Predict the 3D structure of the following.
Amino acid sequence: MREKASAETNAGYTMPYTPTGKASLVEHPPWHFASDVIEIVYRTNPEDVRRILPPPLMPGDQPDLVTARVTEITSVSENNPDKAYRNPDATQYAEAIITVTCRFNGENGVFIPFIWVDKDFSLMRGWLNGWPKKIATIKMTHLHQLHPILKGLEKGGKIGGVVTRHGNKIMFAGMEIEEESSPEEVPRLGTYFGVRHLPSVDPASGPSLHEVVKVQTKNYRMSDVWKGRGELEFPENDEEDMNFLAPKKIEGAFYFKSGWTNYGGTTLKRLNE
């Protein structure tokens, strides 16, 4: 791992490596996050969830349970929190994410089969975790208590998120607010498992990297939780191949704020040895 510069070598956490390390696309962890989230909780066909899980991940205790989220996030590294003040655009991004339940070595958790972001540093950081991030355009409703027509965060307010990629709509997630809720009502599904995969530069060879990891997230907190009536749409799209995970039944819809710290991850099993 490259961390410090010297007269003989370049530095940085990820490429590009330079004498100071300042050009790295992703700064060294830990990374600290805060977000505004729309989350739709739903049920789908458990056999379809099984099809999207890469071995050796197995279905979890609730194999038909899926969540879809659209969120706006601010993140900074431990070593450079002032970036949020000096260069806000380099710390803010939007994300949309689908999670399914899974199990590895007896531990229940979640796997991310689909995830989109709108900034390259988040894209790379996701790949480090084994999350299949792709670049997309992601927009959320911005409610404001003083808006003359739109309601704020209150009963009857509507908040939605739209994901588009290459001009095609991928997902719409929205809710009409009905009442205040609590963090305990929002499902917490456990450990995030990822599968890191890097093909070899030689197409005739096996992968250079293929391993199961889990992400170490701590200090998770939630506030301003609301629940309501949810909507979730996956328009037909030839590029994303996700329509088979469309909801059979929506069980809940939530809006909330959250914060957490990501310290990196742990390699659980190397599959290409």
Summary: The helical segments are 46-52, 83-86, 120-128. The radius of gyration is 19 Å.
